[in-house]
Amino acid sequence: VSTSPLLVHLAGVELTPAGKMWLQKNLVPPQTVWLKLISREDNTLHCLVSQSRGSIWSYCMNEELLRLGLARSAPITGVPPGSPLYWRLHKRLHRAEVKAEKKGRGLWKKESLWERASKALKDNLLLRLIGRIFQRTRTE
To answer: What pLDDT does residue 1 have?
Structure first.
């Protein structure tokens, strides 16, 4: 009997650092977490991870991370790419990622007009030169 821990990997998801922080914050120990095994490689389980949301409903963390733009979809390892399971999972996860992209969340966030304009002004060489000239005249 082996007592070594098993690593749980979110199937079809490539986490960002912000996604890892979100998981640490939202996966709280007293709540029940459900693992749906998709495949296994050595000591790594590729799973769909669900967590209870109240009394009856639960939600899939894999999809939620993609929906929030805190992860990218990745190939689902351990499942043959032509199988019905692969395409069913791929479709679910891809749909969640597309929602984040359309709403501009997380990885897909677009800078506002104000942010783009201020960045352009900061990066403008002529304005930087004028700023340096004014700084020198103020100190003298």
So the answer is: 64
